[in-house]
Amino acid sequence: MHKLEDLVHQATAKHSDRRYLLAVSGGLDSMVLLSIFHALKLPFEVAHVNYQLRGLESENDQKLVETFCSKNSIKIHLCRTDLKEILNDNKGNLQQHARRIRYDFFQKFIDDKTVDYVVTAHHQDDQVETFWLMLSRSAGISGLSGMDEVSNCIFRPLLSVSKKELKNYAIEQGIEWREDQSNQKNDYQRNLWRNKLLPYLTKEIPSINSAVLTLMACFKEDKAMQDKTVSSYIEQIQSTCFINFNNYDQLSIYQLITIFNYFNIPVLKIAELSKIRQAQKGKIVSIDSNKSPFSSIVKEFDSFYFTKKENSLTVPMLLIERVDLIPAAFTKQEVFLDAQKIEGELRLRPWIKGDRINLVGLKGSKLVSDILTDAKIPNSTRDKQLVLVDDKHIIACWGHAIGRDCLADSTTNEIISVRTA
């Protein structure tokens, strides 16, 4: 077995019984990938995108891929699109439009579950080019670490293989491929790096590619460690909706951005959270994102609370029964009232700003908000607080304080017990 075939065999062995969709353009890299998958008898189909940008050249690319698939009984899926027309209608960057079109095409097969992975022919030279492109754009650790072998159902088994090795394999095996002449134009940054800058650098500093790959490996290792930390905090926020300040302060900006992106929270909100750290408890940062599961982030005493959009208050059923005596000891989860002092129907409702209770042992009344503050109830959970009311009185801040207006005492003729189901 050839070295490249063995490499792909080992990579695919990690994904046993998986179905692959090979992205094949007709160029050297993808035709080698196609030939290797065919030689290994792997379960795969082929996807080819014809942008119709180069006239007869584009048609011949498609024909080459179709001929190979027909000859070897391989199922092929075609996407033909007039990219020039799209650009005329929408303007923008050609490369970005082309990437969106092909990955939208590939994603349909993933969404339909007809394949498990889309396989691309990205190789070592692509990694080096990506490093310099990302560096020129002031990218962080994620960009500088390069492409992963597997990410979001995209499988890249040739990342450790150089372009020279792919070409040697193609010549040895008699593989036909086509050259895209547009790749020789330096209209785009990647082509500029590929055709001019990197050849100059490698000529002047022969070891530079090796140094870049070493750096990328270091960045990738660091990224993997940071991603592990990120995963633990994502799980924590999902389960508790809290992250305390000590943990938050230890996160790097890369980790914070990754967490915010995971929850579809605009990264600009990171700066807003820094501002409210010195504000009073209860300060809120609105998230304003339709895709995020959270509506806001609330500053608590020592943590941030992520408020879920689907939070809805479930009001429990009241159990009301007549009793003969007031017990010597009872909790605030059960109140004993004078039935003759109650006006209308007893019910639980969410408290609202301005609610007051005439507390036992206190002259005058006290705001429910102050009762919750004294009880150290977090601002983030106060919207779940219930009060027991009748048509006239606020009888109790449920679970925390009881008012005197309807409270049963030794002179009460009809005592009722009120608790929740």
How would you characterize this protein structure?
With 421 residues, the protein is of the alpha+beta class. It has 3 domains: 3-205, 3-Layer(aba) Sandwich (Rossmann fold), CATH 3.40.50.620; 241-308, no CATH class; 318-420, Phenylalanyl-tRNA Synthetase, Chain B, domain 3. The chain has helices at 3-13, 28-39, 56-71, 83-90, 94-111, 124-136, 141-144, 163-173, 189-204, 208-240, 245-250, 253-262, 269-276, 368-374; strands spanning 20-23, 44-50, 76-80, 117-119, 150-151, 154-155, 242-244, 284-286, 294-299, 303-308, 318-323, 334-338, 347-350, 356-357, 366-367, 386-389, 394-397, 401-402, 415-420. The chain has a 6-stranded mixed sheet with strand order 3-2-1-4-6-5, with helices on both faces. A 4-stranded antiparallel sheet has the order 7-10-9-8.
Give a quick precis of the structure.
The chain is α+β, with helices and mostly antiparallel strands and 421 residues long. Helix content is 41%, strand content 18%. The strands form five sheets. Strands 3-2-1-4-6-5 form a six-stranded mixed beta sheet, with helices on both faces. The chain has a four-stranded antiparallel beta sheet with strand order 7-10-9-8. Strands 13-16-17-18 form a four-stranded antiparallel beta sheet, with no helix packed on it.
Structural class: alpha+beta
Q: Number of helical runs?
A: 14
Shape: elongated
CATH superfamily (homologous) name of the largest domain: HUPs
Tally of distinct domains: 3
Q: Give Rg in angstroms.
A: 33 Å
The biggest beta sheet, please?
Answer: 6 strands, mixed
Order of strands across the biggest sheet?
3-2-1-4-6-5
Mean pLDDT: 91
